[in-house]
Amino acid sequence: IDNTTASNVKNIFQNGGSGAFLCDSDNKTDNICVINLPDNDYVLIQTFPKKITQKMTRDENLIGIKLETVLISMFIIYIISLLIRATREKEQTLQAERSVADRKERQYRAAITSNAFCTFEFNLTKDIIENDIVCMIDDKPVSLLDKIGLKAPCKVSECFEKWKAFILEESLEEYSTIVNTEYLKERFDEGETEVNIDYWGWASKDIQMCVRQSFIMTLDYETNDIMVMVVTKEITDIVKKQKEQTQACLLYTSPSPRDTR
Predict the structure, then answer these.
(1) Each residue of 178-189: pLDDT tens digit?
(2) pTM for the complete prediction?
(3) Residue 132: count of CB within 10 angstroms of its CB
């Protein structure tokens, strides 16, 4: 042991008492405990060689490291379980929201397509109709693309242009302005998701009819394309009744001719 520790131990031998002392790091003894037993004329000395204390320290450190590793592992497992639970809850919430959204979409589609004689969908962003457009005329399926000499897939803009041949002159200008891919894109960019137009056209060579065409636009979040569902309904009778009612009101409210007698 070093001189300072030896002096402290010697003092206990001479004067009694007890003490525990740390030795310098250069000594083989790490620490020493001394207790004077005056009743028995003995001094109890307990020494701890450096190798033993270092081993004890390493063992304690190893146990501490193992304990820390276990605690960290348990904490990581706990965090992972929380993340898994949160993910599952989020998925369940999203699934429920999607279910509600799908149900509402089905209800909306059913409502707007009610009494429609023709519905079809196209990609406005890519200007393409993927499938044939079939409508019921006199309870028979008729391809509207065949009538204008086209086959699916084909360009929407080309369809709109060829369909002008079936539009009455009085509705042609409004039809050309609204039933237009660029116009529909502008309306969607401005926040509108539905565009409607009423126009007169030829149902056959001799029969005219008035139709209401609705363009319902939605964004496909997977492709970022604007998808459009087109719903066409015949409103000929409704328009005729409105005209008759308007004419009747005008006749009713117009002043009667003065009696010239």
Answers:
(1) 999 999 999 999
(2) 0.55
(3) 16
